């Protein structure tokens, strides 16, 4: 499958390109960026990959699919352009500013007969894959807390189409939906700052009551100069506590690439492993491997063989519905029922 990458900022360079390169079923056929700095980075990272000034120029080469990882306010037009040319699309999150916008894009893709997948790669985080094996040992799950603080003030997407809720919040809500199912009620608070582009949310706390009865809370910040990745899961048979790291991102930033070898890729630091607490005592839980490349491997299988998409647009819309409810809850100070 020939796939083009649209955008080569932090998202394209750290979260997309390295994992595309690790999948044998995919050829990175081109990158779209006009920035001289980004073009130089593409040349250094992928010297054999062509660089294009526009999505149209890339599409003219005959790619099968594109991954769009440009700033949020540009994504709608680019997704629609690719769909109109009959090309399958991976849209970075947030793939639309709200659920109505997501439904518009999903309808366009369905009409054109192409796949539209949302890049919720954090379903393949190390902590999530590890938690999947822990949950059956906790009995009935009562309450879950997920905290993800980033010390990255400069990377906050500013303005009415941006904000941390739509950015990192999309991932954290998606993780809760995958683990515990649909949400019935939402209560939220947003921290906001004034930016030249407009008032922007820079932190959040979102609580959700799931149909399964689980009560989950996700919190995050980006400009408060603290970094943390924590889980607390409480069940009828015990609890699970994790104070881990953002493993795969840290490995990329250290200069490693999954294409160089996956045997030791995506495992938590042994000093930061999670702990299961039950009547039997305290048990350190071994890390399960996290693999963002699995997202692209499943997308290739969906395009080539009709296998299920890793994250179809319908699931991205469900996340956006929760985010819309969280924004309404924070604005009006009320609980929102879905």
The structural class is: alpha/beta
Number of beta-strand segments: 15
Shape: globular
The major beta sheet can be summarized as: 9 strands, mixed
Specify the helix fraction band: 25-40%
Count of alpha and pi helical runs: 10
Low-pLDDT sequence parts: none
Q: Radius of gyration, Cα only, in angstroms? A: 20 Å
Head-to-tail CA distance between termini: 39 Å
Can you put this structure into words, describing what you see?
- The chain has helices spanning 10-20, 36-45, 55-59, 72-84, 99-112, 126-134, 168-180, 247-253, 293-305, 313-332, and strands spanning 2-6, 27-32, 51-52, 65-68, 88-92, 116-119, 141-149, 183-195, 198-210, 215-221, 228-235, 238-244, 275-278, 281-284, 336-337.
- It is of the alpha/beta class.
- The protein has a 9-stranded mixed β-sheet with strand order 14-13-12-11-7-10-9-8-15. It has a 6-stranded parallel β-sheet with strand order 3-2-1-4-5-6, sandwiched between helices.
- Strand 2, helix 2 and strand 3 (51-52) form a beta-alpha-beta unit.
- The longest helix is centred in the last third of the chain and has 20 residues, at 313-332.
- The two termini are 39 Å apart.
- The mean pLDDT is 96.
């Amino acid at each position: 499958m020939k796939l083009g990458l649209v955008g080569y900022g932090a998202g394209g360079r750290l979260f997309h390109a390295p994992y595309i390169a690790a999948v044998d079923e995919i050829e990175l056929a081109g990158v779209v960026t006009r920035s001289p700095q980004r073009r130089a980075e593409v040349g250094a990272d992928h010297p054999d990959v062509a660089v294009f000034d526009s999505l149209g120029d890339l599409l003219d080469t005959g790619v099968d699919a594109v991954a769009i990882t440009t700033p949020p306010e540009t994504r709608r037009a680019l997704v629609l352009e690719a769909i109109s040319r009959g090309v399958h699309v991976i849209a970075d999150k947030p793939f639309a500013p709200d659920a109505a916008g997501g439904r518009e894009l999903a309808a366009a893709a369905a009409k054109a007969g192409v796949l539209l997948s949302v890049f919720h790669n954090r379903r393949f985080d190390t902590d999530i894959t590890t938690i999947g094996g822990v949950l059956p040992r906790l009995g009935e799950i009562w309450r879950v807390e997920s905290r993800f603080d980033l010390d990255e003030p400069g990377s906050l997407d500013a303005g009415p189409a941006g904000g941390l809720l739509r950015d990192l919040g999309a991932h954290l809500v998606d993780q809760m939906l995958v683990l515990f199912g649909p949400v019935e009620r939402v209560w939220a608070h947003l921290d906001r700052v004034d930016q030249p582009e407009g008032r922007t949310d820079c932190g959040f706390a979102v609580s959700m009551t799931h149909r399964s009865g689980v009560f989950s809370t996700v919190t995050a910040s980006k400009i408060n100069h603290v970094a943390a990745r924590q889980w607390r899961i409480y069940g009828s048979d015990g609890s699970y506590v994790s104070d881990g790291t953002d493993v795969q991102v840290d490995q990329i930033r250290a200069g490693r690439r999954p294409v160089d070898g996956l045997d030791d890729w995506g495992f938590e630091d042994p000093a930061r492993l999670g702990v299961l607490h039950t009547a039997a005592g305290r048990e350190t839980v071994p890390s399960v491997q996290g693999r963002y490349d699995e997202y692209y491997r499943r997308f290739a299988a969906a395009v080539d063989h009709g296998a299920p998409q890793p994250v179809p647009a319908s699931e991205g819309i469900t996340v956006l519905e929760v985010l819309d409810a969280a924004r309404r809850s924070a604005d009006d100070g009320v609980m929102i029922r879905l």
